[in-house]
Amino acid sequence: MKKIVLVATVSLITSGLVFSQSYGIKGGINFAGIKVDNGSDPDGKVGAHFGGFIKKGLQNDWSVQGEALFSFQGWEDQNVTYLNIPVLAVYNVDNNLSFHAGPQLGILLGGDNDTSDFLKTADVSIVFGGEYYFQSNVYGGARYNLGVSNINDFNEGADLFNRVFQIYVGYRVK
Description:
mainly beta; 8 strands; 8-stranded antiparallel β-barrel; elongated
């Protein structure tokens, strides 16, 4: 399943590059944690994320942006790796500043200490944030990924939801 999703993602990105108006790379820091529905949230952890994006301008000040990001998340002593695929509506305030929001599908790639054995393969989040272009091709941004799907794969136990705050920099190629 994971290989099929990975091949489909690479295919979509490759075909998207042909029709996109811009594309590039990005990477940064994750401040990740997990929300437990019974209120006993474990401590978060710092990780990283990196990947690429494609962007297509729409009418007026709106664009749509797709991304594929490897994201190192988790909590306390647990490391979890996802392939996150957000599809974002982007509102361009001006040439330098934009805000974005949209859904994100996270595909669990693995974890340590058998973490992935008790987590669901898919995670759905709502993403919102903003970006600022310092130069025509160099930008920075911040966003919050609010997990809305329970990732606990046990029949019993608390509901678990990912929470990730990201700070990043990127380079737009085209």
